[in-house]
Every structure is written in C-alpha cells, then in structure tokens.
Specification:
This protein is an all-alpha fold. The chain is about 40% helix and about 0% strand. The protein has three helices and no strands. α1 packs across α2. The longest helix has 10 residues.
Amino acid sequence: MTTKEVSEKYGVCIAAVARWAKNNGVGRGEPVNGIMPFNWTEDDCRRFECRRAPGRRKDRPGKQQ
C-alpha cells in the first residue's frame, strides 16, 4: 500500500501517516523522481492502527492562529 492509501483508509492526514512510517520502520521502495516512497505491508497497517495517539483527522481543521 502507499502512504496515500493508508491515509485514506484510516482517515488521517498524509503528513501524520508519513511521519509515523518514518519513525516506526516502514520499509522504503525504489526512488521515484528523487522521492523514496514507503511500502506499507499489512503488518505495518496493523501496527499503525494500534498506535497510541490517533493523529489529526482529515476532516478537522488544524490549530487556528
């Protein structure tokens, strides 16, 4: 799965999903235009689903300034 697919599946913003992947050992794929995408496995998705903090929902606005 891609980071975008995981984001849509769990309803969390892409940045939160990518940050979690970086900090929790999700494997990387071959570089595409200089970007190394994350390759999500079913095990990675289960670990993400059981994470301690749920992250910010995509449908909720961020902190207002």
